[in-house]
Specification:
The protein is an all-alpha fold and about 100 residues long. The chain is built from five helices and no strands. It starts with a helix and ends in a 9-residue tail after the last helix.
């Protein structure tokens, strides 16, 4: 399990949300919401195993959930320059880097 939760779990989701919305800045409120979102994704089973983070196998889901939360705040606070779509999750997912090549 990683010892640097910010680098592994928080920053990728914040960055994804900022990129998806073309946010003009990242606020303290976005960091707080990212932390709350991450905490909400820790299962009882993880806690029982002594981990305060979700399993690494769920990293993409964690990043997407944090990005959605950050994107919502970016739009709500007027910091987003990208046009908001009706499907925020699809908007976020469209900005995920893919390592597959044609």
């Amino acid at each position: 399990m990683p010892g640097q939760g910010n680098n592994v779990y928080v920053f990728p989701g914040i960055g994804l949300g900022a990129v998806a919305t073309r946010a003009t800045r990242i606020t303290d409120e976005m960091f707080l919401q990212a932390a709350l979102t991450l905490a909400g994704m820790v299962s009882d089973a993880s806690l029982e195993d002594g981990s305060v983070y979700p399993p690494l196998g769920e990293i993409r889901d964690v990043s997407i959930a944090i990005a959605r939360a950050v994107a919502q705040l970016a739009y709500a606070s007027g910091l987003a320059r990208a046009e908001r779509t009706t499907d925020l999750e699809k908007q976020v997912r469209s900005h995920i880097w893919s390592y597959a090549y044609d």
